[in-house]
Amino acid sequence: MGVEEEFLLVTPDGVPTAVAPAVLRLAAAEPSDPRPGGDVEKEFKQEQVETSTHPCTDRDDLLAQVRDGRARADALAQAAGARVAALGAPPQDVESTVIPDRRAHEIRARFGQTAREQLTCGCHVHVAVQDDDEGVRVLDHLRPWNAVLLALSANSPSWSGSSTGYASYRSQVWGRWPTSGPTAPFGDGATYRHVIADLLRTGTVLDDGMVYFDARLSAHYPTVEVRVADVCLDAADAVLQAVLVRALAETAVRTEPAVAPVRAEVLRTWTWRAARSGVTGDLVSPSTGEPRPAADVVGELLDHVRDALAEAGDLEWTERQLGHVLRRGNGAVQQLAWRAQGADDDALVRRAVDVTQL
């Protein structure tokens, strides 16, 4: 498993700043790492960068890598006069800037306001699969649980200088892309590839890199890539996403039926509800299709993957970390608490900078 995290680049005062080219030049000048992954990479806007961990099997190793990646990105940002903040969206009204890249400029030209406003940060989890058929089995199994993963990670309650009333407004902004969101069951790898070919045939998206499903087969690695989560304020919450996704994948390959009989139209409603209230209200129970308190639905997820977690040695840690998230709240809850203590937009970002490095 591995984790990719997107971060805002902000001034020491807490304002998003377009210094990604400088940060990336500094990263390119560092000694190369022979292992795969572990890079600081470009994102769509100059006000953000992305990090990735190396593939690994051990949870503690992954947590150390996530923290190291955050520290490295922040050190590079400081050398460029900035810091990194793990926020799903900037709270301020920002005129963001596309990176100097031909593909990025084509996306901006083709998608207009959707692209202009797309300054959001997610957390992407990769888990290895043997082939496309196993990957699709995992994708189809994940479908009813992706909303719960979003609720646990939600970390974007503000947008353009206003409180949105959502725990994850990033997911609402991201949902404007034509290929975003939940999918219908695919059934097998051949069907998945046919769907991707049909999407590309429309001429709407540039390439398969713009297939923005909540979970997809990676275009570059033999992995399932789960993209539904906001970037997590707390590094351990990012690892929680990875551990849960791996456990869901392990459960998928041993569970019949592989496909949950829930229509994509219904799943979109589940996802919207998770984005709205996160872990502080009701979520939709995958077992009943009806609202239940978030803690109960999180408990359903834990029970569903309990055996896989136990076999990986992750059960006790996951129980503790889920309890921590439910008691403390996700990033959205923490941001709203800072607001209640009097933090304005810039002060909120500065506090997020500090927590990002814990």
UniProtKB/TrEMBL annotation:
Q: What is the organism field in this record? A: Cellulomonas fimi (strain ATCC 484 / DSM 20113 / JCM 1341 / CCUG 24087 / LMG 16345 / NBRC 15513 / NCIMB 8980 / NCTC 7547 / NRS-133)
GO MF terms on file?
ATP binding; glutamate-cysteine ligase activity
Q: Where is the composition biased (Basic and acidic residues)?
A: 32-48
* Renumbered residue ranges of the record's region Disordered: 29-55
Catalytic activity, reaction form: L-cysteine + L-glutamate + ATP = gamma-L-glutamyl-L-cysteine + ADP + phosphate + H(+)
According to its UniProt entry, the function of this protein is described as:
ATP-dependent carboxylate-amine ligase which exhibits weak glutamate--cysteine ligase activity.
Signal peptide residues on this chain, from the entry's feature table: none
Task: Kindly give the InterPro entries that the UniProt entry links to this protein.
Answer: GCL_type2/YbdK_subfam (IPR050141), GCS2 (IPR006336), Gln_synth/guanido_kin_cat_dom (IPR014746), YbdK (IPR011793)
UniProt entry tagged with the keyword Ligase: yes
The record's section on Gene3D superfamilies has: 3.30.590.20
Q: Which UniProt keywords apply?
A: ATP-binding, Ligase, Nucleotide-binding
Q: What protein family is recorded? A: Belongs to the glutamate--cysteine ligase type 2 family. YbdK subfamily.
Catalytic EC class: ligase
Q: What is this protein called?
A: Putative glutamate--cysteine ligase 2
